Amino acid sequence: MIHDHDSLDKIVSYLSSQTSLSLCCIDDGMPYCCTCFYVLDVQRMAFYFSSSLKTHHASVMLKLPKVAGTVADQTRSVTHLQGVQYQGRVRLLADDEEKRARHLFCTSYPIAKLKKAPMWEIMLTTLKMTNNKLGFGKKLLWSRHD
């Protein structure tokens, strides 16, 4: 497994090229997952996504903000397999943070301007990328050290 600046560049490049993530939270001891469109904020190493407060996952995340999930290609070729597993803490954004995140999100998804659902941030704590394009089973790691 590799954990260095070059690894982070490869992970960021991959995450920046993708559009959707699986988002998993824990509801009363049971896992619950959904899929969301996202944008990556490289400066903060965070995902931004938009989701109504009326969703089940929103109510769960407000109670327990620890989340995990994946970003993955759909391919039948094992040699081209790439994907990222992540862990982080989610929070509902407000004020200037919400405006900044919404601007980034709507730049990637202009249709989102039509529906003003709340903006959320997943502050990433760990990333683990499998990248078989670099060699079968090649893992790239990143973790936040604040």
TrEMBL record:
Organism: Entomomonas moraniae
Record-linked Pfam families: PNPOx_N
Name of the protein this chain belongs to: Pyridoxamine 5'-phosphate oxidase N-terminal domain-containing protein
Domain Pyridoxamine 5'-phosphate oxidase N-terminal: 9-100
